[in-house]
Write the structure tokens for this entry.
Amino acid sequence: MHVVVVGCGRVGSGVAVQLESLGHTVAIIDRTKRAFDRLPPDFKGTKVIGSGFDREALDAAGAKDASALASVTNGDNSNILCARIARENYGIANVVARIYDPRRAVIYQRLGIPTVPTVSWTTTQVLRWLLPEDDSVEWRDATGSLLFVERILPDAWAGKRLEELDSPGKFHVVSVMRSNQPRLDVATLIGQEDDVLQIVVLRDALAELDERLAKVG
């Protein structure tokens, strides 16, 4: 799929390179040409000089054909504006905005924009939102039979008890990241949009887990 990344700083360049290594086409936007020096010489994606909320720059980056967009500049207001334009004007389903002020996260969530904070694992978290179908594994035991994975809660599960996702002996939701806060009281939680689930699952039950998430009840 095609992905637009706005901001070619440490996080933006890292996201762009990882996306390309996964076989996706990438366009990256930044206000300064010098920012693109962070990209490796063999980067094949499109580089666009401009603003992430400027229509000409977004068009040049192929936003009309994009399936995902990440705005990871150093400005909260710019990131949320770009994310809203991507979703509302271009119809891009998977968008994410980087934030510096965590107090704004609630406001962004009300607008339907997932956010990630500025911490060391930001690049990984951005990829989680851009590639919700990715089945990458966070951890596995020595035998490779027990996995620890993260999944974004599908919208259809919002309003349902999270404990209903469990399948005894196969997979179990152990924690939830909600509004950038970890929650361990899974048995009492009702699913909310943008919840990130941490799940322990047997390797042989991974496909069954994804099927379970894809349907309600």
